[in-house]
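cron nightly-structures :: item 1 of 1
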Amino acid sequence: MTTASYHIGLAIKHLADKKKCSVESLAQKLGVVRQSVYDTFERDSVRKSTVKKYASALGVTEEEIYQVAGFRTDALIDDKVLNTYNSVDGYLLKRLADLEDMVVFLKAQLNEKDNQIRTLLGKSDSVFLAGFVPLFFLAFGYKFGYTY
């Protein structure tokens, strides 16, 4: 059996049905709203502390819930946790690579904007006359309809 076929929420629902425990009474025992119980039924994985709470409310052991979900109670629980961490690590590594690419892109954008600013301020070798443009408009702007 692969880890993808485990579904803790359905196991909890199955045990609640087997114990003839309604969603309302289960929610009341847990001190949560009914929607929270329905949401847990939909999840394929939940925290161990949540499994412990549901086991206590249903009057079963945590191992029973894991067995109904399809886990072998010896090694597979640890494998499931390990696979979860591996998938999280994979996601984080991909996200880190994306962020590093974005940093490189943003640095290039910053350099481009700096060059544009230098050009507009007339501090670039490529546009020597850019510094004289304001002076030109001060001297001859009235001929083009500019007023100061």
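cron nightly-structures :: done
The helical segments are 8-18, 23-30, 34-42, 48-58, 62-69, 76-120, 133-140.
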